[in-house]
Amino acid sequence: MVETHGIGLHTAVPVHIQLLPAPPDTGYVFRRTDLGGFELPATVESVAHCGYATTLMRTGVMLSTVEHLLAALRGLGVDNVFIEVDNLEIPIMDGSAENFAEIIERAGIVHQPLARRALLVREKVFFEQGNRRISIEPADTYQIDCLIDFTHPMIGVQSLSVELSDGAFSREIAAARTFGFTDEIEALRRANLIRGGSLENAIVLTPDGMLNQTGLRFRDEFVRHKILDIIGDLALVGARIRGHVIALKPGHAANADLAREIVKQHAKIAALSVPRTFPPGEGGLDINQVMEILPHRFPFLMVDRILGFEGETKCTGMKAVSVNEPFFAGHFPGHPVMPGVLQIEAMAQVASILLMKLAKSASRIGYFMSADEVKFRKPVFPGDTLFIHAELIKARSNRLAKARCSCVVNDAVVSEGDLMFTFLDK
Ligand SMILES: [Zn+2]
């Protein structure tokens, strides 16, 4: 547990926050300790409004200015945390995320046993609002490119590209402060905003300079803070992101809209991967035909059907991994993942169907002898559809065979290996 305190930028109230460890799949959950621990999850569904700060609300309870703390959590790779807050706004600290990053680093990050889920961006998502534009497209890492353009002489056009890995957040982004203009201050004050604002927690710009005596922390501190805000706002998708963000004059509202679109796209794709029946393709086999070939039966039959063969050497099968699989009960209670050895078994069963077809005889069965180069790349969860590929790469004699196999979920290889077989009479 670590803590810090300060005042709210908009409300000027004193606030105390504590970060506490949370179990896998919790995400970021705020708790209003002044309201009996009322919980506000940091999700797109909770976003109430985002004028000058990002505000969460659930059944009338709100929490303001969450974006800099969320940026620090996401930027430092924290996936699960309870954040206890004793007032209605996260403290502004010095206007940056540096203090939050420091306390997170001081607390340390525990690696949890369950592989963390990443939100893979699969199609470009684009959002436009006036002259603001923000998009995200598929990428292997989380990268943000941002461009801003202010007529102010200290800002002008600034652009920066940051890939969030290896401490980049702490080094490049965390210390960049929020900023405002003197000619907007009166209007904001009249709107009852920035009541806690001061030169201690923002860069304040006059028409041709700045009021702060201390100077800038980076020559391009302004675009760095915009990237900080994007990371914080997109943290509301509830998972780490793999995608490339391109932002032109971003703002909280456009960022939140993009976050909502990302979640929508992800839900649509997740719905597509829900188990469903497939028509048997050219030469596919349904469950009865599979059971005519394989001697395996529930719960050891790991193939629901064969989708098809490609020539004499390739074959693809599928299995809908249901939450009712007996192995989930003990592997592991509360956090079910499909055991890797059963994925190998699924590969072996699909490969032996392929071998059977090759042998053109149902009187012999391929026995699985050994496995090489086995790798488990991603966890398989209840609800996943496993596509099992087998390709014959060597048939030295009519007694031995080798098949290169892989299991795929949502277009990503989750496990692979080379399997050796020998043929025996049934
Ligand atoms: Zn900000």
Chart the SSEs and their pairings.
Layout: E1 2-7, E2 14-21, E3 28-32, E4 38-41, E5 47-49, E6 55-58, E7 61-63, H1 67-75, E8 81-85, H2 98-107, E9 118-120, E10 125-129, E11 132-137, E12 142-150, E13 156-163, H3 168-173, E14 179-181, H4 182-190, E15 203-206, E16 209-210, H5 221-234, E17 240-248, H6 252-272, H7 287-293, E18 305-310, E19 314-320, H8 340-359, E20 364-376, E21 385-394, E22 400-409, E23 412-425
Parallel strand pairs: 3-8, 9-17, 12-17, 14-15
Antiparallel strand pairs: 1-2, 2-8, 3-4, 5-6, 6-7, 10-11, 11-17, 12-13, 15-16, 18-19, 19-21, 20-23, 21-22, 22-23
Helix pairs in contact: 1-2, 1-5, 5-6
Describe this structure in words.
It is a single chain. The chain has 426 residues and is α+β, with helices and mostly antiparallel strands. It has two domains: 2-272, lpxc deacetylase, domain 2 (lpxc deacetylase, domain 1), CATH 3.30.1700; 287-425, Roll (Thiol Ester Dehydrase, Chain A), CATH 3.10.129.10. The chain is 23% helix and 35% strand. The protein is built from eight helices and 23 strands. It has helices at 67-75, 98-107, 168-173, 182-190, 221-234, 252-272, 287-293, 340-359; strands at 2-7, 14-21, 28-32, 38-41, 47-49, 55-58, 61-63, 81-85, 118-120, 125-129, 132-137, 142-150, 156-163, 179-181, 203-206, 209-210, 240-248, 305-310, 314-320, 364-376, 385-394, 400-409, 412-425. The strands form five sheets. Strands 9, 10, 11, 12, 13 and 17 form a six-stranded mixed sheet that branches. A six-stranded antiparallel sheet has the order 18-19-21-22-23-20. Strands 1-2-8-3-4 form a five-stranded mixed sheet, with helices on one face. Strand 10 (125-129) and strand 11 form a beta hairpin. Helix 1 packs across helix 2 (98-107), helix 1 crosses helix 5 and helix 5 (221-234) runs parallel beside helix 6. Bound molecules: zinc ion. Residues 67-68, 178, 225, 229 line the site of zinc ion.
